[in-house]
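Please check this:
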Amino acid sequence: MIEILADSMKRIVASQQEPEELGSGYGGRHGPAEGPVWIREGGYLLFSDIHGSRRMKWEPGRGVSVAKEGTANANGMTRDRQGRLVVCHHFSRCVDREEVDGSVTIIADAYHGLKLNRPNDVVVRSDGSVYFTDPPPRPPLTPPEHMPELDIAGVYRVSPDLKHINRVVRDFANPNGLCFSPDEKILYINDSNRHRKLIKAYDVEANGMVDLGSERLFVDMKGDDRPGAPDGMKVDVEGNVYCTGPGGIWVMDPEGQHIGTIQTRAVNMAWGGDDWTTLYFTGPTSLHRIQLSIHGIPVPRGEL
């Protein structure tokens, strides 16, 4: 079911539209299924089975199969301008890139010589810079012996040439999902800590750094006691923000008004389909999709 809170939601999805389940049984004993990314030229979806330490592949007409074993409990995935897969790993505490020849390039595994906590979600800007969240270590998402070396759960930017890493935001308890506005002038970051459950917005400077003075609350979800928390997050071409939250997938307009909810259990999401109007999303142990009436931002992202 679709919760309609404003007429603008009706332009995105009909109230009677229902998500379709594509598969279930992923994520291991602890769950969840995570990190979906659409591979348009192949017409298939990849997603992470975190505690199975597997990468899964969904293809129309074929269903779900195992694409890769031994992913170091990978989580968030995206693609860069060249179409290479960019992946966050909990157990190996890094963000890496899979090259076309099958080799792997480390994008980031430390900050000022200290190991990262557990890279969680990632987005690549149109200039090739990589932004990722790094929440605190937390068993069973990380092994008990993975003690934190950093005393901050940060959000980081890696330059396109991979020579520089900057911590761009440092005051989140559990930074999780992140995405850019369609013009990439705003960076949205959510905090899934149960005492926060919010999304903040920041202006992005010309050099890719975040203007911390522009920090503002975009949405506060704490007042909704339905199951769910902010996690995966995406935007459409009109600047509406989609974020998992209490009761399902929240849809907010560019001003931060909650205009409706796709009522379901959701953890992360990705745009897909030939025209980027299908929203694929993972639940705690399942994979789903829903057809919308608006285009999402393609991945890889082209020039603005």
User: Anything to note?
Assistant: The mean pLDDT is 95.
